[in-house]
Write a structure and sequence with these properties.
Helix content: 25-40%
Radius of gyration: 27 Å
Length: 634
C-alpha cells in the first residue's frame, strides 16, 4: 500500500515517524519544511529502531544535513570531535558526492570507510549519501572479507609487510603524510592516514614488534593520543592483488568473447591495471560489482528530495558522468560499456518507488503543493530559515547594540526553559516568528510567547569559539546548557558545523549559527561581474571545494593546516592540484583565491601546478577582453 499524505496543520514528529515505521510501503510528502526538521525526523526514526537513509541532491546539501545531525547528537555537539573517533562507530555513516572530474581512483577513502561501516552488522544504522552514489557501481559486497588488516600494540608484524600491503591497497608513498591514503616510512616509524580516521596514525616498531600506535597532527608532527589498535582498509575499490587481477583478466576475456568488449578496449584495461589501476572503475574490474542498496541495512526508511526534484538530480548526475566518460574515452582512446560504470537513472528511480520514503517538497511559487489533490495545502513540520542577524533584529537600534539585544533574547528563552510543564502549552502556535497575544506582538527576539515552551540553540564551530562566547555571556548572568537534551527546553550552546539560522515552528526550536550570531560587515565596494574577487574569510570552506588561484588555476581545498616556517607559525590552506601537486597558501593571502563558479552541478578538472593550461586560459580570456574593448572603441 502506498499512502500519499498531506496536511493543513502542523503535525507531531511522532505521527510522521509512525507512518515511516509501518511495515507496508508508505510515501509521505512533507511540505514547507526544511533541513532541521529532516534531521530531527531521521534521528527519531533511529530512536524508534528503524534504519534510515538520507538522500541529498548534492554535496552542499549533504554537508548541511551532516552539520544538523551533529547538532542534535548529544555526544557529538558536546565538544570538538575526538581524534580517536572512527567512522564505523558512528550512528550516521556519510558517503559524499563523487566528483566525476576526479576520475576513478581519487576520492574513495571516505567512501571505502562508509562501505566498511555498513558491513559491520549494526542492526540500526543511519546513512547519509548524495543521490549520485546510487548510480555508480560499487565494489563486491564481500570485498572486506579478505581486505582488512587489524593491528594492535604488542603484535609481531614486519613494517615492510604493512607497507607492501598498503601500496597494494592504493596507498601512496609520500615524504610527509597529510591526506587519507598517504603513507610514509622513516626507519622503524610508519606513518599512515587510513580511511575512517580523523587523524593520521604513527606506528612505532622495534624490529618486527609493533610497540606503539598514536594519532598525530600532520602539521606539527606531534603525537595527540595513544590507541590500542587500528584497522587498515583499502583506499581505492580496485585492488590489484594477484588473485583479483587474474579474475579481472578472465572477466575481460569473457566480455570480448561475448562481443561486449572490443579486443583493443580490453588491452586498454590491461594497461590501466599495469599503471596501478588509474582510470579503472569497479564495474570494469569486478565481474560481480554491487550497487549501493546491496550495502544498506535491510528495511531502511528513506528521506529524500521532492518527487519533482529527485529525478532532476539523478538526470543531472547521470549527464555529468556521461560527459566525463566521453572525455576520458577521447583522451585515452578506450571506449568501454557505460553500463559497467553506471546504472541507468530509471533503475534507481524504480528502486526508490519500492521503499518507505518521505519526500521533503520544495515550495514553488505558482505550483500547487500536490497536483494530484485539490486538498493539498499546508505542511507538516513547518520550518523557517534565518540568514542574517537583521532577520531576527530588524530594528536599527539592534544593529547599533547587537550584544544587548542578543542578551535579552537569551534571557527570554532561558526563562522559558524553567517553566513547569503544567504552566506551559506543549503545542506551539503555527507561526512563532510573529505572533499576537492580546494587543502585543511578540517576535523570536522576545523569547517564546507567554504560556509556551521552546528551545534556543546556539551553534558554534568549535569548543574554543563557544568558550569565548560563554565568557561574555557569563558576565550577564547567562549560563546555557552545554549538552543537547530533547526532553529539556530553554537555552543551549552546542558545538557543530551548522552556521545558519532555522526556526522549527512545529517544535518551537530556534537554531542560530555563527553566521547569524556574528554579523559581518559587507564589502563597501561591489566589484563588477567577471572581476577576480578574492575571499575575505575561509571558515565557510569545506574540504573538497574547488577553488581558483589567480596564478595557478583550479585546485581542490584539502583543509587548514598550521605550519612553522622559519620560526614563524601561521595557518595555511592546502590546495591539491593534478598529479598530486600541493600548494600551501597563507591565510593572509586569501585575496589570491576565489570559489570556482560554474553551471549548477558541473565539476571542473584540477589544473597542474606550473602547467600551461591555466596560463593559456588566462591569455585567451585577456585577448577576448581586449577584442571586446577594441570593438567598443571602434
Amino acid at each position: 500500500m502506498t499512502l500519499c499524505a498531506f496536511w493543513r496543520t502542523p503535525l507531531s514528529l511522532s505521527f510522521v515517524t509512525g507512518l515511516l515505521t509501518d511495515p507496508s510501503p508508505q510515501t509521505v510528502h512533507i511540505t514547507r519544511s526544511g533541513p532541521g526538521s529532516l534531521a530531527r525526523l531521521a534521528i527519531a526514526l533511529l530512536d524508534k529502531g528503524r534504519s534510515v537513509t538520507i538522500v541529498a541532491k548534492n554535496q552542499s546539501e549533504l554537508a548541511e544535513y551532516r552539520a544538523l545531525l551533529t547538532l542534535f547528537n548529544p555526544e557529538r555537539s558536546l565538544e570538538d570531535p575526538s581524534p580517536t573517533r572512527v567512522q564505523w562507530a558512528q550512528r550516521f555513516v556519510s558517503m559524499p558526492q563523487y566528483p566525476a572530474s576526479l576520475g576513478a581512483r581519487s576520492g574513495w577513502a571516505e567512501r571505502m570507510a562508509a562501505l566498511y561501516s555498513l558491513k559491520q552488522g549494526r542492526r540500526i544504522q543511519g546513512v547519509l549519501v548524495t543521490v549520485d552514489n546510487f548510480l555508480l557501481r560499487m565494489p563486491p559486497s564481500d570485498i572486506f572479507n579478505d581486505h582488512e588488516l587489524r593491528l594492535h600494540k604488542g603484535m609481531e608484524m614486519a613494517p615492510e609487510l604493512v607497507l607492501d600491503q598498503a601500496v597494494d591497497w592504493g596507498y601512496t608513498r609520500v615524504s610527509m603524510v597529510s591526506a587519507p591514503g598517504d603513507i610514509a616510512m622513516r626507519g622503524d616509524i610508519l606513518d599512515m592516514f587510513c580511511p575512517g580516521y580523523l587523524r593520521p596514525l604513527r606506528l612505532e616498531f622495534f624490529g618486527d614488534m609493533l610497540e606503539g600506535i598514536r594519532h598525530f597532527d600532520p602539521i606539527s608532527q606531534r603525537s595527540i593520543t595513544d590507541v590500542a589498535d587500528l584497522r587498515m582498509l583499502p583506499v581505492t575499490p580496485v585492488i590489484l592483488s594477484r588473485d583479483l587481477r587474474r579474475a579481472a583478466e578472465g572477466f575481460w576475456k569473457k566480455e570480448v568473447a561475448d562481443g561486449r568488449l572490443r579486443p583493443a578496449d580490453a588491452a586498454g584495461l590491461t594497461r590501466m591495471a599495469d599503471s596501478g589501476g588509474q582510470g579503472l572503475f569497479c564495474g570494469q574490474f569486478y565481474e560481480q560489482s554491487s550497487c549501493l542498496e546491496d550495502w544498506l541495512p535491510p528495511g531502511c526508511a528513506f528521506i529524500m528530495p521532492g518527487e519533482l526534484d529527485l529525478p532532476q538530480a539523478l538526470e543531472e548526475a547521470e549527464r555529468n558522468w556521461a560527459e566525463f566518460l566521453d572525455r576520458e574515452a577521447e583522451i585515452k582512446g578506450v571506449r568501454l560499456p557505460r553500463c559497467r560504470v553506471l546504472r541507468p537513472a530509471a533503475e534507481v528511480q524504480a528502486l526508490f518507488s519500492r521503499v518507505n520514503r518521505a519526500h521533503f517538497e520544495e515550495l514553488r511559487i505558482g505550483v500547487p503543493e500536490n497536483k494530484n489533490s485539490a486538498d493539498a495545502t499546508a505542511a507538516a513540520l513547518p520550518e523557517k530559515p534565518y540568514h542574517t542577524f537583521q532577520d531576527l533584529f530588524p530594528r536599527p537600534e539592534a544593529q547599533e547594540r547587537p550584544w544587548q539585544h542578543l542578551v535579552a533574547m537569551m534571557r527570554g528563552w532561558s526563562a522559558a526553559g524553567s517553566r513547569k510543564k503544567t504552566d506551559a502549552k506543549q503545542t506551539p502556535p503555527a507561526d512563532l516568528s510573529t505572533r499576537k497575544d492580546g494587543d502585543s506582538v511578540f517576535s523570536l527576539a522576545d523569547g517564546p510567547a507567554p504560556g509556551t515552551r521552546g528551545r534556543l540553540i546556539l551553534s558554534f564551530s568549535s569548543d574554543r569559539a563557544r568558550a569565548r562566547f560563554l565568557k561574555l555571556a557569563a558576565q550577564d548572568g547567562i549560563t546555557p546548557r552545554l549538552r543537547y537534551d530533547e526532553s529539556h527546553n530553554g537555552l543551549f550552546a552546542l558545538v557543530s558545523p551548522f552556521r545558519k539560522g532555522l526556526h522549527l515552528t512545529w517544535d518551537n526550536t530556534v537554531i542560530l549559527g555563527e553566521d547569524v550570531l556574528q554579523p559581518r560587515v559587507e564589502r563597501a565596494r561591489k566589484l563588477p561581474h567577471g572581476v577576480f574577487q578574492g575571499l575575505d574569510r575561509y571558515d565557510s570552506l569545506r574540504e573538497g571545494d574547488f577553488l581558483v588561484h589567480r596564478d595557478y588555476g583550479v585546485g581542490i581545498f584539502s583543509g587548514l593546516h598550521r605550519m612553522d616556517m622559519g620560526g614563524t607559525k601561521n595557518d595555511y590552506l592546502l590546495l591539491h592540484y593534478a598529479g598530486d601537486d600541493k600548494l600551501y597558501l597563507p591565510v593572509d593571502r586569501l585575496s589570491l583565491i576565489q570559489r570556482f563558479k560554474s553551471a549548477e552541478g558541473s565539476q571542473p578538472t584540477p589544473d597542474r601546478l606550473g602547467g600551461a593550461q591555466w596560463a593559456a586560459s588566462k591569455d585567451k580570456a585577456r585577448k577576448a577582453i581586449e577584442k571586446i574593448a577594441a570593438d567598443l572603441v571602434q
